[in-house]
Amino acid sequence: MNTTVTDIPTTRGVLTPDACKDLFYAGSAEEYNAAMRMAVKMVNTFLTNTRKPFSGIKPDTLAAAFSTIDFDTPLPDYNSLLEEVDMLYVKHATAFHLPHYIAHLNCPVVIPALAAEVLVSAINSSQDTYDQSAGGTFMERKIVDWTAAEIGYGSGSDGIFTAGGSQSNMMGLLLARDHYALKHLQHNIKLSGLPPEASRFRIFVSEKSHFSNQKNAALLGLGEKALVNIPTDHRFRMDASLLEAAIIREQELGNIPVAIVATAGTTDFGNLDPLLKIGRLANKHGIWLHVDAAYGCGLLLTEKYRHLLNGLELADSVTVDYHKSFFQPISSSAFIVKHKQSLDIIRHHADYLNPEEQDYEELPAQINKSVTQSTRRFDALKLWFTLRLMGKKKLGEYTDAIIDTAAAAARLLAEEPDFELLSHSDLGVLVFRYLPKDRLIPDPDAFNLAIKRSMFFSGEVLVASTKVNGHFYLKFTILNPLTTLNDICNILTIIKRHGKDTLN
C-alpha cells in the first residue's frame, strides 16, 4: 500500500521554538546574550567587591542555607537564579586571584583562557574523535607537540590532555606496568589481567611524592605495598644514591623494579628531585621513569630557571598541569610520552566510535590515547588562546616573579627570629611555623593549628598546612605573580596578631 503525507498521523504536543528558548541554537541568540551579560556582570561584581580571599562562613551556616532549595520548583528568571547562586556560592567562593590567598596550588588565571572557556562550553566539542572536534583535534595535538618539544623530546613523542595530575600519574604507572609485562614476560595485561609476577612489581617513589601514587598503585591492582619509599635529603628531594641502593636491594629480594616516579615540584616543599641522576639510574637499570611535573612544569616557560628541569628529557613519561603553573582555568592538564608507540598499550576499539579498520592517519582519534575519558572537553583551546595571544615569554616572566618572590620571602622568614623556616624552595612553597621568642609555647603544633583556623574563619588570609615528621607547620604556596614581598610582610604580621590573640 502506498502511503501519502496526509496518511501520516500528526504528532500532538510538538514543542515550538519559543518553548525551546533555553536550548543553545540560532533562535535563542538573544536569550544566550542576555544570560552571558548577567553572568559577566556577576563576575565583575566578584572582582570589584571581593577584598579578602574568603568570607569566613562556617560550614554549618552555609549548609543550612541549602535546606530550602527545591529542584522541583524552577526559579522564575535569571535574576532570581543569580541572586541564589550569589548567596550560596559567589559571596563565599575562595578568591585565588588575591595576594592574600597563599594556600594551595591554585593559580590566578589569564583572561585569554577565560575567553576560550566561552567557546569551549558553548560549542561543546568532544575530543574523542575527529568527527566530533575536527580542528580541535589538531589544536590539541599541536599543544601536545609543543609541550613535548619544550620537555626535550623528539618528533616521535605524543600525549593527550587529561583531567588532572592524578590521572596523568596513573597513566604513567599503567604504561610502566604493562610495558614491563609485554617486554619481559610476553604477557598482555590488557587482555589477560595481572600476571603472577605482579605481586613482586615494585615502584620507587620519594617519601615526599604525591599521594596519587598510592591511590594509583591500588587502582592498578598492585597495592600500596608495591611502592618503595626513598628517603629525601635536607631539601626533601629524593636521594639518588639511596634510590640505587633500594633498586638493588629489591632485586636481591626477588622483586621486580618496573617504575621510578620522580617529582619535579613537591606539593609540600616545591622542590625538584635530582632528575638527571635519577634519569641515568633509570636508564642503567632499564626501568621506566615517570616524572610528576604537575607543579614544576612552569619551569618550561622560563629561561632563568629552566635548568632546574635538566634531565626531564630522560623520562619515559611526564605529567604536566597547565592549571597549576600555566595560569589556566581548571581543568587543563596533559600526559606526555617520549615514544608514541607506548600509548598503543591502552588502545581499545569500539565499532561505533574508533573501529579497528579505520585509517587513523587520515581520520585521527584522540580516544585511542585516553584511559578513563571518552567524552572529553576541548581544554586545549584555553592554552591555545593563551600562547597565541600572550606567548611563552610573558608567562615565563610571571613564573620568574613567583620564584623570585618566594626566595625573598624565604630569606625574610629565615631572618625573622619569631619564625622557624623548615626549607627553602625551588619554586614557591615555604613550610614554617610561628614561635614567638618572648613567650613559652608548650605545644607548638596546637598553637600553629589554632592560628591557621583563626585566620581561615576571619577570611583575611588563607594559608595551607602540613605535617613533617609528625609536627604541624604552616605553609605558603606562592603562585600569584601579583603577590609581593610587602604582601608577605603583611601576612606575617597578621599571623603574629592571630598568634597573640590565641595566647591571650
Please render the helix and strand layout as text.
Blueprint: H1 29-49, H2 59-64, H3 78-88, E1 101-102, H4 111-123, H5 135-151, E2 158-162, H6 165-185, H7 189-192, E3 201-206, H8 212-219, E4 227-230, H9 240-252, E5 256-263, H10 275-285, E6 288-293, E7 317-321, H11 322-325, E8 333-337, H12 380-389, H13 391-415, E9 419-423, E10 429-434, H14 444-458, E11 462-468, E12 471-477, H15 485-503
Parallel strand pairs: 1-11, 3-4, 3-5, 5-6, 6-7
Antiparallel strand pairs: 2-8, 7-8, 9-10, 10-12, 11-12
Helix pairs in contact: 1-3, 4-12, 5-12, 6-8, 9-10, 14-15
Structural descriptors:
504 residues; alpha/beta; Aspartate Aminotransferase, domain 2; Aspartate Aminotransferase, domain 1; 3 domains; 7-stranded mixed sheet; 5-stranded mixed sheet; 15 helices; 12 strands
Summarize the structure.
The chain has 504 residues and is of the alpha/beta class.
| Residue share in β-strands | 5-15%
End-to-end CA span: 95 Å
Mean pLDDT: 94
Low-confidence stretches are: none
SSE pattern? HHHEHHEHHEHEHEHEEHEHHEEHEEH
| CATH fold label of the largest domain | Aspartate Aminotransferase, domain 2
The portion of residues assigned to helices is 25-40%
Question: What is the overall shape?
Answer: globular
Based on helices, strands and strand pairing, what is the structural class? alpha/beta
**How many β-strands, per DSSP?**
12
